[in-house]
Amino acid sequence: MTEKQSSLAQLDYKKIAIPILIGLLLWFLPIKPDALSDQAWHLFAIFVGTIVGCILQPLPIGAVSLLGLTTIFLTKTLKADVALSGFTSSTVWLIVMAFFLSRGFIKTGLGNRIAYHFVKRFGKSTLGLMYSLLGVDLIVAPATPSNTARAGGIMFPIVRSLAETFQSYPNEPSRKRMGSYLIYTLWQGNIVTSAMFLTAVASNPLAQELANGAGIELS
Fold this sequence. Notes:
Number of helices: 11
Number of strands: 0
Largest sheet: none
Shape: elongated
Distance between the termini: 55 Å
Order of helices and strands: HHHHHHHHHHH
Helix content: over 70%
């Protein structure tokens, strides 16, 4: 079996069919809100189908999104210049570039190396260990526009490993020894660092753009 045939065999056709059927069902639904035009309703149907596809992921999210965009063109729901207008936004590209940096932090292990260096220098006590981990989150936050990726992809594996080193395991009474303290404090710190930097979470640049539209300038 060739690599192409193997990839086709791995496709889950049920996951492919569900978002298509949902989109078609909404598209041809005889009842729709009176306030919406046919164009708006068709755009909504494509949007919902795309979101369902992103959740089920019969293909990578990027491929599903491109298929949704292609459907908009093929059905002439929107003109190309209107559909692609979002790509001219500097805010969108700021988020994209920050995600590239985030992927680099995770793939190269740079985030982990920074974390272990901080732990080595400052983790002499439980309190010092937590301060060192929060310091890592603070440094990595500007280049990681997803608090989920930062906390789950970089920080959580380290925190769990450190907790288990001290015989503190999840789903056991020993979790209260150190693990619950580290996890809870990391969660609180992650929320704070997400609000400190424009690129610390993807919603921040979008909030900035909405504020600019209301005449409020956020540098």
